[in-house]
Amino acid sequence: MSASLAARSANFLAARSVRTVVRKQAVAKTAVYSTRRTLTVSTRAMGAKIPEGDHFTMADQPARFAKGKADNNSRMLTTDYYDGTFLKGQRVLVTGGNRGIGLALVEELVDCGADVVVMGRGSSDELDALEGVQVITGCDVTDTKSVEAAVAKVTEPVDILINNAGYFYEPLETITSMNFDEELKMIDICAVGPLRVSSLMFNAGKIKAPGGKIAMITSQGGSVAWRVVQNPTGHDYGHHMSKSAANMGGVLLAQELAPKGVCVQMLHPGFNKTGMTKKYEKIWEVEGAVDASMGAKRVLHEVKLMSPEYNGLFINCEDGLQIPW
Ligand SMILES: NC(=O)c1ccc[n+]([C@@H]2O[C@H](COP(=O)([O-])OP(=O)(O)OC[C@H]3O[C@@H](n4cnc5c(N)ncnc54)[C@H](OP(=O)(O)O)[C@@H]3O)[C@@H](O)[C@H]2O)c1
């Protein structure tokens, strides 16, 4: 090992041990994380096995929300646990920050004193109204050259990259109404897109290493194990395939970047009232959909908790528990 590599590893190991100590203190305070590692398996309908345990959140979304209310679960129902002070002075890049959860993330980051960069196809009046945000437009996450050009405009490495941009084709896909072009588009945006952004950013030295974090906003829709509960009659092929592929990409990225001191985590942002879920407006209140401002705080809380010890997990930001693959 060269002297500089050895020095870098030593630095990383030292930094990791500090983070581990801090994390262990946090773990002692929250039983939630301490139970994430135990795994039990039970058998469910159609021969599928859904891993269960206290560290796993519930597949049945209406039942999950009803239980949260019955238990008066403040982690689920409030943002009392949230403390955004860790974001002050952090450099954070958000993709798709012009609307929806992405815009809410940017607004919260600005409020907390972060140094924010947004990459997207276009801006919006709300995004333009925020002061001190670098907005890089013309960046389509399916177009490598446009991502390269956007990355070149990022002046300094970021502490946190949030791959938020995503797409959910509006009509229901069934065996008689599959849209193959749309399926490939969703896979390109939701699964390959975050890899394009992450790899081009990392290779250009624009993600701090060691110490950087990459949050992949995927979806509970990407959990294969949960399809028997959430899609008992199938459907939504392209979207759910795209998020499943995004989870796989994230796990592989977590494996590859761990030795370089960069954490990667897959985050389901919860059910948020945005343009994407407008088609589900009728079930928003029954299934616990929240305003994107609350969803953003849930996401940023989980970003705060990201550490080497919990690298590569798939977390439900609604309650901080794991979702099975
Ligand atoms: N809302 C929920 O309940 C929910 C649940 C689970 C997961 N998610 C995930 O959370 C993320 C944000 O969702 P949302 O509800 O905020 O969705 P949204 O309101 O539809 O916003 C989607 C964002 O992604 C951007 N985007 C789409 N295609 C892009 C492309 N090719 N290149 C660059 N940017 C692109 C959009 O930019 P344009 O304005 O240019 O289209 C927009 O900024 C997505 O990854 C979504 O899958 C959301």
From TrEMBL:
Full protein name: Short-chain dehydrogenase/reductase
GO MF annotation list: oxidoreductase activity, acting on the CH-OH group of donors, NAD or NADP as acceptor
InterPro entries reported in the protein's UniProt record: NAD(P)-bd_dom_sf, SDR_enzymes, SDR_fam
Pfam assignment, any one: adh_short
Record organism: Micromonas commoda (strain RCC299 / NOUM17 / CCMP2709)
